Amino acid sequence: MAPPQPKQSPGATARGITLTELLITLCVMAILLALAAPAVSGVVTRVRIETSMHLLHSQLSIARNTAITRQVTVRVCPSQDGLHCSQDSNWNRRWLMFQAQRQEKHPANPAAILQVTDPPRLPATAAIRSSIGRRHARFQPDGRSGGSNLSICFYERDRPRGRIVINNTGRIRAERASSPRSCL
Fold first, then answer.
1. What CA–CA distance (Å, rounded) separates 176 from 163?
2. Per residue, what are the HEC states of 79-103?
3. pTM (2 decimals)?
4. Residue 71 contacts by C-beta under 8 Å, 6 or more apart in sequence?
5. Which of 77, 97, 128, 183 could form a disulfide with 136 if both were Cys (CB 3.0 to 4.6 A apart)?
6. InterPro entries, from UniProt (predicted)?
7. DSSP the chain
């Protein structure tokens, strides 16, 4: 004999989600996402700027160590094509590290290129710029970086977010921007 089935009342039916309830839920979710999107976008931009800063700091440190280890001059510069240095102060594109013979501002040949780095893709509101007077980093065989200090500044919406400074002795330091004037 089969077990007895529970009795259902004659008016009880299985109920699901109506189309109206589903549309209202989707509208509420869309509004919440629209409100949260700018905040998430800002976080993503800041993370990409921080990542670029750490990556460039690492590449500059590797360049200095390579100069000391190999007893050669090593340069790091912004590049558009990965073969030549750009003559502007825009570091948003590729970074080129190469072994230089004396005062060369570009690699003498492709064999002189030690590393080409593509930084994280930054939105149009972010920028990486170097000092106007000094656009490339150069490390001598003893690790020094002769000449004036080089500052590479990281901006978001024209506000400084951080900078990397290379002083004459070759010391590389990264710092967060403490004021709007800290990247001059």
1. 6
2. ECCCCCCCCCCECCCEEEEEEECCC
3. 0.76
4. 141
5. 77
6. Pilin-like, T2SS_GspH
7. -PPPPPPPPTT-------HHHHHHHHHHHHHHHHHHHHHHHHHHHHHHHHHHHHHHHHHHHHHHHHHHHHTSEEEEEEESSSSS--SSSB-SSEEEEEEESTT-SS-SSGGGEEEEE-PPPPPTTEEEEE-SS--SEEE-TTS---SS-EEEEEEETTEEEEEEEE-TT--EEEEE--STTTT-
